[in-house]
Amino acid sequence: MPETTDLRPAAAYLARGPRTALRRFTAADAEEFTARARESRAHHHPWLFPPEHPGTYAVYTGHLADDPSREGFLVCEPAAGGAIAGFININNIVLGGFCCGALGYGAFAHAAGRGLMSEALGLVLAHAFGPLGLHRLEANIQPGNAPSIALVRRAGFRLEGLSPDFLFVDGAWRDHERWAITAR
Question: Which of 111, 116, 176, 183 could serve as 140's disulfide partner, Cβ 3.0–4.6 Å?
Answer without folding.
Answer: 176
